[in-house]
Amino acid sequence: MEFSKNGKILLAVGFVFIFSLAAYLSFVFLNKDYTRVFTDQSSEQLAKIVDSLDQAGIAFEYPESGSGILVENSSLSQARIQLSKDAVFSSDIVGLEFFSESQHAMSDFYQVVNYQRALQGELERSLILIEGVNTARVHLAIPREKSFSIKKADIKAAVTLELTPAGRANEVEIVSSVVKLVASAVPELTEEKVSVLDSQGRALTGVSDAMSMAGGARQKNTIETTVEGKIKSLLAPFYGSEDVGVSAWVEVNNDKVSERAEGLDASKEPAVLKRTTETTQASKSKAKSTVLNEEFSYQTLTREVEYESGYINRMTVSVLLPKGDHFTEAELIELIQAAVGIDENRGDKLTVLQYTPEPQTVTTELTQPTAMSEQTAKVEQLQKQDVVTPLSTGNDAIDWLSSNALYLVFGLLTLLAFAFVAFFSFRQRATELEVKQITTDLKTWIEERKVEQNLNL
């Protein structure tokens, strides 16, 4: 089958157009820019975010490692608006809203209980606004007033804090602020009656008092916590804060050293104290001579240096994290050394150990899990896996089309190419038939003309 010159040109242009369209559509479908967001959110908060985006049909993916989620750049604004609409980041803590509705039939006892719950909620709202505090729980022990009681029971408060890595570095200051805030907000509550614990059950008020009395121990703990927080915040976006273990130990020199040094100040010219000239008369054996004697005095310099306490003599840091493709071991060591200031000449030591995560085992419980617990477990499990799993949008047809869009495009373009070739083949065949018909008609006309000429003769 041969094409005419115009047919070949049109065929080439058609193929170029089809393949250009295929390349463009492939670029559009495959090259999507994603941004990692919500890396500092807890698993429970991420579960709420996932549920909101899932219901809104906003597509996103889970990162291969680390925390947060991946959202397309073109959908970031839509995702933020949707999360604000669903009030995902709003606190579930209830404060004085207890009294927003009229409760006429409620007794005085229930009014007192609701006021206590509302006061606890307002305190929790105030505490989570402190930088470094992730979550807070407040429990007030307010005894009931007794008419005939001589001894009055004291009001007590218990506060449980979940601190961020940055908050642990300022643990003492945060605890002191929390104690003052709670004691000031509750009438007749003294600071001595406020107990503060962390999420691990460690009493922070006792640690705070001990550190206040022992400045050296406080400074040592602050430095160690700061170093650990820096490393965790540096590696958390890549490995996840829960999978990274950091332990720092520092040897702090709390001795105050004073040095006194005395010497001559060579930067200034010496002063002449005494100058004498001795002249010896000439004799038969000796000639006349003159000798100049000078006495100089240099200014003395006294320097006193006093070194403050808290100098780091030595530091040891150990880091435990899962294996990943983000950095090599040498790059990790260099990164951490630069972040916390490891000085080998001072005797500092850095140990980085990478382990292989164990596969997650799924256990089935008899109790029926809630939707939120299922979503939370899903987020935690997918965060620890080294795969990127797209989230289902809730519509099977849309999911199938989005996952097979590239194959559909190539299939459609292939059909167009075959249709294009078939069209030109048909056109070429039609052209040959037309030429044959024209030739036949021409021959018939010539024969008719010859017959007419013979008749005329």
From TrEMBL:
The Flagellar M-ring C-terminal domain sits at 276-354
Provide the protein's localization. Answer: Bacterial flagellum basal body; Cell membrane
Question: What GO molecular function annotation could you give as one example from this UniProt entry?
Answer: cytoskeletal motor activity
Query: What kind of membrane protein is this, topologically?
Result: Multi-pass membrane protein
Boundaries of each Flagellar M-ring N-terminal domain copy?
Answer: 32-205
Pfam hit, one: YscJ_FliF_C
Q: Which domain of life is it from?
A: Bacteria
Entry keyword annotation includes Glycosyltransferase: no
Its BP terms in the Gene Ontology are: bacterial-type flagellum-dependent cell motility
One GO cellular-component annotation of the UniProt record comes to: plasma membrane
Asked if the keyword Membrane belongs to this entry, the reply reads yes
* Membrane-traversing stretches: 9-30, 405-426
Record key words, sorted: Bacterial flagellum, Cell membrane, Cell projection, Cilium, Flagellum, Membrane, Transmembrane, Transmembrane helix
Q: Which NCBIfam families match?
A: fliF
Record family assignment = Belongs to the FliF family.
Function in brief = The M ring may be actively involved in energy transduction.
Task: Kindly state the subunit structure of this protein.
Answer: The basal body constitutes a major portion of the flagellar organelle and consists of four rings (L,P,S, and M) mounted on a central rod. The M ring is integral to the inner membrane of the cell and may be connected to the flagellar rod via the S ring. The S (supramembrane ring) lies just distal to the M ring. The L and P rings lie in the outer membrane and the periplasmic space, respectively.
What's the name of the protein? Flagellar M-ring protein
